[in-house]
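Let's practice the habit of predicting before peeking. Look at the sequence and jot down your guess about where helices and strands might fall. Then scroll down.
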Amino acid sequence: PVVLRFRLEEPAEYRLNLMESLMANRVRPLDIAPATVRHERRKDVEIGGQQYPEVIAASVTRMDREDVLVFDAAFPHRLLRWDMHNGDRMTLGDSRFFYYWEHTRPEDRHLLRPE
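Done guessing? Here is the structure:
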């Protein structure tokens, strides 16, 4: 997701090599496979109960699998939803912006918890 987030202004389709996710409950080989990324801008989209005037959907196809990552079109292009090839879906629940390096004292811990 990080690589895609910073390449949203590139052409509507490009290729790259992706490594399999390291998030798993068992050890797997670190396989790298070619992937194709396609961007599509969508207007007036509702995600997680919130309306967005414009989003960018990045479809990532590798091997026989396709994931769709939906980013806010406005900077800083937050990842709003991730529809995975296996049917799972992750949706952004909360997002707050603050300069974390200015909040390093124990009494600032409340900033790390959801409100």
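How did you do? The longest strand covers residues 32-47.
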